[in-house]
């Protein structure tokens, strides 16, 4: 049960990090890179870390279908 809760928490963290990056990226892009540079970089790093935590739950990726 604890593993399932950890996995769910990691998936939610990944979703939040991605959403935060998307918001900050929009402001950064609209300003032609003059605003929110450091915040954008930090948000990107947060996404990478969150994805890595999620990836730990399935180190080999999703199961692949067998060739026909």
Notable characteristics:
68 residues; 2 helices; elongated; mainly alpha
| Overall morphology | elongated
Number of DSSP strand runs: 0
Strand content: under 5%
Cα end-to-end separation: 36 Å
| Count of folded domains | 1
| Fraction in helix | over 70%
- Biggest sheet overview: none
Rg calc: 16 Å
Secondary-structure element order, N to C: HH
Give the structural class.
mainly alpha
Low-confidence stretches: none
Q: How many DSSP helices? A: 2
Task: Provide mean pLDDT, rounded.
Answer: 87
Describe, in plain words, how this protein is organized in 3D.
The protein has 68 residues and is mainly α. Helix content is 74%, strand content 0%. It is built from two helices and no strands. The N and C termini lie far apart (36 Å).
List the helices and strands and how they pair.
Blueprint: H1 2-30, H2 37-57
Helix pairs in contact: 1-2
Summarize the structure.
With 68 residues, the chain is mostly helical. The chain has helices spanning 2-30, 37-57. The longest helix is centred in the N-terminal third of the chain and has 29 residues, at 2-30.
């Amino acid at each position: 049960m604890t593993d399932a809760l950890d996995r769910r928490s990691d998936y939610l963290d990944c979703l939040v990090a991605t959403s935060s990056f998307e918001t900050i990226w929009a402001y950064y892009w609209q300003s032609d890179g003059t605003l929110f540079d450091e915040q954008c970089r930090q948000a990107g790093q947060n996404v990478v870390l969150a994805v890595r935590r999620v990836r730990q739950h399935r180190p080999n990726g999703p199961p692949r279908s067998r060739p026909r």
